[in-house]
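Second attempt. The first submission of SnoaL-like domain-containing protein had a stray character pasted in from the spreadsheet, which I only caught after the job came back as garbage. Lesson logged: always re-copy from the clean sequence file. Corrected sequence (279 aa) follows.
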Amino acid sequence: MLSTVLTLQYGAAQEKVKTKKAEKMNYKQETVDLLKAIETGAAAPVAIINANSYKQHNLAIADGLAGFGAALQALPAGSAKVQTIRVFQDGNYVFAHTDYNFFGPKIGFDIFRYENGKVVEHWDNLQEKPESTNPSGHTMIDGTTQVTDLDKTASNKVLVRNFVDDILVNGKMDKLTGYFNGDNYIQHNPLIPDQLSGLGKALGEMAKAGITMKYDTIHQVLGEGNFVLVVSEGHLGGKHSSFYDLFRVENGKIAEHWDVIETIEPQAEWKNNNGKFNF
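This time the job returned cleanly.
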């Protein structure tokens, strides 16, 4: 009798795990489909948005589903192109790394928050897509896409948050090398070459040119396995900016980096009052 009960309990637990995995996969696929609908005009994927409660943090788009629809209608006919390269999930948040043509070629990160199976909130960061590769021959989107080390998600998020806080927010450069495996570091920023030494050299050259980069506040850290996205606010070249940094962690060290930087326009130009961040 006891063995039968235990078997039933185990079976029920396994079904719950399968259900959670299915929901997780659906959220990610639904996000990819929703983004692709910008290109195709398909109506079905848009149904995943909660029409009664959709908060928009792209400051160039009006709030709600109506604002999203108006932005799509403003696109020149047939111009939109969307290719999602990476998609991840952290709880109720799904975040994607996408190659766009959205009012011109861009690379973007999108974050969607799900509630009761519907998308209720959206954040993004968009940057003009460069015409050439960076000094090491990388684009802003190429590189590893495979998610691994799901059991290390929490520790990887702590590692990456500490790196951004120590180095980019507080400038504790004496701690820099501790976050990397020697000089091994793959870089996708369009202006910076590979290797930790390449990062140091590029930052030095920026400083000599009077181009300052300062991170002030970390607003969100999301991760799945070996990938962690950090959303920060700061200034680049004196301009109020939003920084989205995606890191790949390998064996407890930062191994690869992608980013998108967007200037935050003056509030008078915003089309909604939800703010760029406000997670």
